[in-house]
Design brief:
With 433 residues, the chain is α/β, with parallel strands linked by helices. Helices cover 47% and strands 15% of the residues. The relative contact order is 0.16.
Length: 433
């Protein structure tokens, strides 16, 4: 017993001595230790050029992603041009070398399906791609290589299939186009289908502009009539059991409409801050529902690449030092798929980003305690790090990183993403007029 107590006491003394020793180190010594650790544990990425098809620097992913069926490729903001280039090169590798067959965008479910049809018909790559994702991607010069790759692969025996998982409209489809697609769907099964029977729904659906939404948002009676018609249309669609592949997407899209308009009616239309719980979480939960539907129902057995924001592909927001109430799509996917889902977040130390609202902007300054600050002093311009190695490194359990909009946020990052792709200097997305 005395021997046990003696060993226990000595262990405590050694632990305290270790902590005191570390705390007495100067900041330069601590930074040097972190730099050395990152140099040792990070994997150097030679290039982010999508035309660089010498994939030797990416071969490690064959081991890292073993058993992974869904991989989320994130971005800190939607204006990160260098990230778009890096993701395009990764997509080529994942498609050509690792058997990933589907690319799913943070874009409208119906919009991206129309994009897929347009590419398959041989339409021009700009016209086809414009129908799918939001303009932050479809009009970015750094996404041109991806458009070309998709177009070229459509002519091969191994095309890259396209889809979207958002319930929000995103591409160039007009309200009239969407209405025509819905009416055609119902008339295939109901020859006497008449939109006037569902007047309250179609009168808004054809004119879902800001002014109309503002008016109906303030009118509970109109909302009730709208949702009554919509519920009838959902019930009608659910009666159709044997339907064509194209109609399966439209049926899922119809199931997205009640959550979408609930989201639109709740969302602030006067540029004030949205309520996270009622607005953002509804969107992310629907993203997850659509993503799971794509994986299990529409593309069973196929491996999928997800293109979206770090905010949506990550998980466990309760691991932030100051948690918010957001439950991102990635949390739902991680809960369901476990290690079969992999979140790869992107970040940068300095450079520029582009915003459709605010134009070209410099990245906010990185905290000198952030991992990006330490990474910037390493030799590699581009690096990959798996987050589970943080358990044995010099970084504290909670430390700052800039994964969400380049804010310096402290969190237990090893529980929020599976890997981090570091770009030392970010080049802003260049928007094509």
């Amino acid at each position: 017993m005395n021997l046990v107590m003696s060993l226990y006491r000595n262990t405590i003394i050694l632990a305290i001595a270790s902590v005191l020793s570390y705390s007495c180190r100067t900041d330069p010594e601590r930074v040097k230790e972190k730099i050395d650790w990152l140099e040792k544990n990070s994997i150097h990425i030679r290039s982010i050029d999508p035309l660089d098809t010498m994939f030797d620097d990416l071969e490690f992913l064959s081991r890292e992603l073993q058993g992974v069926e869904l991989i989320g490729l994130g971005e800190a903001t939607h204006g990160d041009g260098s990230t778009f280039l890096a993701k395009t090169r990764l997509i080529r590798f994942l498609h050509e070398r690792m058997g990933y067959e589907v690319l799913a965008f943070e874009g409208g479910l119906l919009d991206c399906f129309e994009m897929e049809k347009s590419f398959s018909k041989g339409d021009s790559q700009d016209s086809a791609f414009g129908k799918g994702p939001f303009a932050v991607w479809s009009r970015s010069a750094q996404v041109n290589s991806l458009k070309g790759y998709i177009s070229n692969r459509k002519k091969s025996s191994k095309p890259l299939l396209l889809s979207g998982f958002d319930f929000q409209p995103s591409g160039t489809l007009s309200s009239s186009d969407r209405t025509s697609l819905l009416v055609a769907f119902y008339k295939q099964h109901e020859l006497e289908f008449d939109t006037s029977t569902y007047h309250s729904f179609f009168s808004l659906f054809r004119n879902s502009n800001r002014l109309t939404l503002t008016r109906i948002r303030k009118d509970s009676i109109l909302q009730e009539k709208f949702f009554h018609d919509l519920d009838q249309l959902v019930w009608l669609a659910d009666r159709y059991e044997e339907i064509a592949e194209e109609d399966r997407v439209l049926k899922q899209y119809i199931h997205n409409l009640r959550p979408l308009y609930t989201h639109l009616f709740r969302r602030s239309l006067n540029n004030s801050e949205p309520d996270i719980k009622s607005v953002i979480n509804l969107r992310d939960s629907m993203m997850a529902i659509n993503m799971i539907w794509l994986k299990e129902e529409y593309f069973p057995g196929k491996k999928i690449i997800i293109w979206g924001a770090n905010t949506h592909i990550g998980y466990n927001r309760d691991q932030l030092k100051y948690p918010d109430e957001m439950k991102p799509m990635g949390s739902f996917l991680k809960e369901l798929y476990g290690k079969r889902y992999y979140s790869l977040s992107f970040t940068a130390f300095d450079g520029n980003m582009f915003s459709m609202q605010q134009g070209l902007r410099a990245l906010p300054q990185a905290s000198n305690k952030s991992i990006e600050y330490v990474w910037s002093q390493c030799q590699s311009q581009y690096s990959f790090l798996r987050t589970d190695v943080f358990a044995d490194g010099p970084f504290p359990e909670i430390f700052p990183a800039r994964l969400f909009g380049y804010l310096n946020q402290e969190a237990v990052w090893k529980h929020m993403t599976d890997g981090i792709f570091f770009i030392k200097t970010m080049e802003a997305s260049k928007i094509i007029k």
